[in-house]
Amino acid sequence: MTAASGGPQTARPTRLPRSARRKQLLAAAQQVFVAQGYHAAAMDDIAERAGVSKPVLYQHFPGKLELYLALLDTHCDAIIAKVRSAMLATTDNKERVKGAVQAYFDFVDHESEAFRLVFESDLRNDPQVRQRVERVEQGCIEAVTDTIIGDTNLGADQAQLLAAGLVGTSGQSAQYWLANGRRTPKAEAETLVAALIWRGIAGFPLQDGASGGTPAEIG
Question: What is the CATH superfamily name and number for domain 17-62?
Fold first, then answer.
């Protein structure tokens, strides 16, 4: 029956490109995982949230774990990229510290609550999940280590230790700030944490040509 003959027409659902569909499914899965946790979430819930059938969901992800890992990869890559961008955005080391701290605060404060998938997963004991969480920490440490080596006379081991301190302080402070209800305004919290880190790291001698400043210049 055609429209010309007055018969009813059934509109076909829009067929999204594969990449767009995958993005849609990941967004729906994130909402469900954040709200329910991994173990309580069901593929039925995710398919319903995305507005697709389960077969469509399974065409893109063979199971719930693969879907969760794909989400983790996306957000792990994002936080590493943010920290690395902070290191590359300027040659002023004081600003680099601020940028790294802000990267963590932005991540935990994002309305999507994606940080819960990385830092508060109820699947942390799974080897594949643990590997990705460790990759976040190590990737951020490596980004900062490269900068410290380039700007100081420190060796790789010493630079990596300092980078671990910067990354650990930034991440733990941001999570504590969020868990305690954002009682300190975000910009002020970032400045306080950056000041703490900078007053320590600024005391290390710079290579010729590196830009730094003195600890007294911040805070």
Answer: Homeodomain-like (1.10.10.60)
